[in-house]
Amino acid sequence: MCQLYSGQNPDNYQYVTRSIRMSGFTTSVRLEARFWEILDEIAAGQGTTTPRFLSIIHDEVIERRGEIGNFASILRVACIVYLQRGEREATASAA
Prior knowledge:
This protein is an alpha+beta fold and about 100 residues long. The protein is about 60% helix and about 15% strand. A two-stranded antiparallel sheet has the order 1-2. Helix 2 (about 35-45) crosses helix 3 (about 50-65) and helix 2 (about 35-45) crosses helix 4 (about 70-95). It is globular. The chain starts with a helix and ends with a helix. The relative contact order is 0.12.
């Protein structure tokens, strides 16, 4: 079973840093390559660019919480939520 996890392509977990302009400022976000792929997929599905999608998430978190403790962690969890939602939808449609 661990081969599924340990045998993955190292390119998936290499860090990639992107410079993103969000809400009037430029920042760098460092995530594993696979997370960037998922974020690109989510953004495309929303009909927007990845930087714009990240800006929307950033603004919504600020509006709800007033601050962002760890933006990269929010993005990773957003990817997990997206994947879990897709898994639930796939399971429901198969039933």
